Amino acid sequence: MTPIGWNNPRVRSFVYQASVLAAVIAIVWFFAATAQENLQRLNISSGFGFLDNTAGFGIIQTLIPYSEQASYGRAFLVGLLNTLVVAVIGIVFATLFGFLIGVLRLSNNWLIAKLAAAYVEVMRNIPLLLHLFFWYFAVLRPLPGPSESLEPLPGVLLNNRGLILPAPVFDAGAVAFFTAVAAAVAAGIFLVVWARRRQRATGKRFPAWRCAAALVVLLPALTWFIAGAPFHLDFAVATAFDYSGGMRLLPEFVALVLGLTLYTAAFIGEIVRAGIQSVGKGQREAAASLGLREGTTLRLVIIPQALRLIIPPLTSQILNLTKNSSLAVAIAYPDLVAVFSGTVLNQTGQAIEVIAITMAVYLTLSLITSLAMNWYNARIALKER
Amino acid sequence: MKNPLVALIAGILIGAGGLYFFLPYDPLTLGGGAAQVSSGAAGDGAERASAGETLRRVRNRGFVQCGVSQGLPGFSSPDERGNWSGIDVDFCRALAAAIFGDPAKVRFRPLSAKDRFTALQSGEIDILSRNTTWTMSRDTQLGFDFIGVTYYDGQSFMVRKAAGIKSARDLAGGTICTETGTTTELNLADYFRSRGLSYKVLSFEKNEEALVAYDRGRCDAYTTDASGLYAQRLKLTDADANMVLDDVISKEPLGPAVRQGDPQWEDIARWTLNALLNAEELGITSDNVDEMLESGNPRVRRLLGREGAYGEAVGLRPDWAAYAIRAVGNYGQMFERNVGTETPLGIKRGLNALWSDGGVQYAPPVR
Ligand SMILES: N[C@@H](CCC(=O)N[C@@H](CS)C(=O)NCC(=O)O)C(=O)O
């Protein structure tokens, strides 16, 4: 017979947990209500209605259509996308480069190993803000003004306003082309998966990679010609000071990605090194005695085992990079913090709402990243058989 | 207890109910409740900004906490030893002198354009004296009151002489550097949008970087208040290769702001500024203020506290204005010392001359 009422440990634990939750909710409520009351007393506007008001300011990099007449809500989206694009590109580069640094630090070549070590020590001991200023002004310094633009390739211009490329403009038949690309990639992936399953089940081999590659190249190429090359290039044209049209990579963007990548790669390098060194020497020797080559040993034996130790700290570096991208405003890159908790906050004065939204965004980004990385980590975790 | 959900909900209700009793007001009827609190708050509320509260706090603390810029020559900028100078700084000194009889009883808090309003709202500073434009939204939506205009300004552009730009219109298609969180950002958009011209804007958090970016040729122009342009130009590697355009694209009345809700503090700040302006009109300077105490002119006598009880009415000593004038001089002296033609900025009085000299500086009388 289970004890009744308070004597039942489960009842007790429910009551405790419920009370804690209730207290948390009540505290949050209390603060929200107090803030609301204070704002009203001080005559400070509050509420989220401002998101529909006209923004009235310009933004230099917009991945979605935006003009001064757009709303603050739209400006928020522009800033969010600018943050995401920097974060994603930064994460990819920092991870690749970090792995390279980590592996090089363990190189048998004394000079390479020491250079990698020096890189790590120098990069991670300089504050990120200085990295950004350094790279920003280092990127700007050698570049000429728009009137003396470098033209490394026809239609490609390089000056201190950015790297200007011809922009692809898609015509009517482009839909068919993109459908073909998507279909070819999907079919290619399916083919590879299928071939691997079959090989595991029956031992029969199939040149899946080669077939998939052929598919991905040939199918789109075919549609391309059938649809009659459904796109053209929009070349930049010179204006009084600058160029208009084309696609543009801003120096601010390049400096931010550079700074974030080089800084974070130093940390990732150390994580990778620690991960690799944690794999027992015996594994390496066993692989060698099976006749595996150095590269193959690394790829098939060491890295898969090291990954289990690398992923959790790597996750926090990825989160750091995303959060660090909020230093962008120092070099005028219009990320979420610059546009939303900078300009919008200042024009509306609604600090609490704006900061709450910004915090919610970073929290969401962090949670999504953590979930994805945890999922991956669980997948590669050691499976006891 | 089979169902954890029941326990959870019961717990939440009990917890919330318990807390509800301790709330000072009814959170469910916020709008009405808040209005009630602010009108009936005479008795309680040490933290409420009611009449006289700010002055009392400043007196207890022993100094005025004054929000200024991070370094804008002529308005508020520190030298190598950390001594501040400028019109905005002097205004705070005059305020401290009026309150304490001592212009040194003030501390300056450097603020970026982005952080200045939050600093005032949160009570970190008592007064914001930081080349801040008086606009309707700032006056009505941020919970502030502007107390007057210390400097009538307007937005303009700085360009390289070699670029051959004669007016702001010529900047169409160009890139313009500025500081984030300013009226400047919006005026710029208005100017180009209303003319159907395109432009690109780079908004920096601090004006140092904005200026370096302009200096390195990243932007075709640097824009802010004209006064700021004259000051910033001096920091460029080759100041003479740059010029400020004649175009003025906006009205930028710069003035100090205080938190709403303490009319006495607002009055003290407003009348300190008015006293400096009236002093110039009446010919009272920091040098002759002591002789002027004996003047027979009733307007002078009222301003300097020899007649009437004007200082007492705002909680200050009768000769509050005499202290303010002794500390920083009259408005004209303050202007000439900080930004006038004898200074590196070399700005003429222009709009900032007294109304009687063809400007628009006009202070209501002390009476
Ligand atoms: N008057 C404008 C602009 C004021 C402003 O912040 N200007 C900048 C550019 S000159 C400045 O003073 N910066 C000095 C600093 O950041 O310390 C406003 O109130 O929004």
Question: How is this structure best described in words?
Answer:
The complex is a heterodimer of chains A (385) and B (367). By secondary structure, chain A is an alpha+beta fold. Chain A has three domains: 37 residues; 186 residues, Orthogonal Bundle (MetI-like fold), CATH 1.10.3720; 53 residues. Chain A is 66% helix and 7% strand. In chain A, the strands form three sheets. In chain A, strands 1-2-3-8 form a four-stranded antiparallel sheet. A two-stranded antiparallel ribbon of chain A has the order 4-5. A two-stranded antiparallel sheet of chain A has the order 6-7. In chain A, helix 3 packs across helix 7, helix 4 crosses helix 7 and helix 8 packs antiparallel against helix 9. With 367 residues, chain B is α/β, with parallel strands linked by helices. Chain B has two domains: 202 residues, Periplasmic binding protein-like II (D-Maltodextrin-Binding Protein, domain 2, 3-Layer(aba) Sandwich); 96 residues, D-Maltodextrin-Binding Protein, domain 2, CATH 3.40.190.10. Chain B has 15 helices and 14 strands. Chain B has a five-stranded mixed sheet with strand order 10-9-11-8-12, with helices on both faces. At the A-B interface, helix 1, helix 4 and helix 10 of A face helix 1, helix 2, helix 5, helix 6 and helix 7 of B. The site of glutathione has 21 residues of chain B, from helix 7, strand 11, helix 9 and strand 13.
